[in-house]
Amino acid sequence: MLPSRLNFTTAIRTCIKPMRVRLAGLSRESVTDGPGMRITVFFQGCEHHCPGCHNPQTWDREGGTEYELADVFDLLRDNPMISGITLSGGEPFLQPEAALELAKDFHARGKDVWAYTGFLWEHLLKENDPLRMALLRECDVLVDGPFKQAERVSGLVFRGSANQRMIDVKSSLQRNQIIEWILQVG
Ligand code: SF4
Predict the structure, then answer these.
(1) Helix (H, G, I), strand (E, B) or coil at 108
(2) From CA 167, how far away is CA 84, in angstroms rounded?
């Protein structure tokens, strides 16, 4: 017998580590943060303070709204049109444990995972923080580096400035060199 919706939700909840996450907001149908229609989660808190940042309200680590992670999972379910999740901010790598749980859940459902970070790829690898590296390994594409006003050019897709790289994470880790993700047109 199929479980009732309530029981199914309860079963999912038992798999989620109890933790809290601080978010600046959510977009349920974004088409600008990666390919296809995506859910974008904007994490609260950012230490990069890029001049010209469009979201300075996300900088304060005590700002935004704090949620139980299980409640965020409930908010993000039930849209079959979604192709993946984008972890954005703010800085998702400041809350790597919660971001990792979201990424794992979307992968388990056959969706892809993008993340935006103000850190450089090289910084994350050199730092080698266990939680941040676990999150990095769970991403399909990482858009790295700070937003730079001087490198903002028209026509950029999925990036704010030209210095930011869209990195194919799995290929880059396998080959130990940065392999950029290429947008397939047509
Ligand atoms: S990393 Fe992103 S959110 Fe943080 S200051 Fe830079 S542009 Fe703003």
Answers:
(1) helix
(2) 16
Q: How many whole angstroms separate alpha carbon 121 and alpha carbon 119?
A: 7
Q: Which domains does the chain have, with CATH numbers?
A: 5-175 (3.20.20.70)
> Residue 66: pLDDT above 70?
yes
**b (16+ CB within 10 A) / e for 119-156:** bebeebeeeeeeebeebbebbbbbbbbbbeeeeeeeee
Average pLDDT for 7-16: 47
With a 6 A CB cut-off, is 152 part of the ligand 1 pocket?
no
Model-level pTM greater than 0.85? yes
Quick one: which of 130, 150, 143 has its CA closest to 169?
143
Q: Which two tokens stand for residue 55?
A: 């979201």
Protein residue closest via CA to atom 8 of ligand 1: 53
How far, in Å, CA of 101 to CA of 16, rounded?
7
Question: Measured between alpha carbons, how far is 42 from 24 in angstroms, rounded to an integer?
Answer: 5
Residue in 33, 41, 44, 58 to alter for ligand 1 test, most ligand atoms within 8 A of Cβ = 58
Residue nearest to atom 3 of ligand 1 (CA): 90
CB burial of residue 180 (10 Å; 0-12, 13-18, 19+): exposed
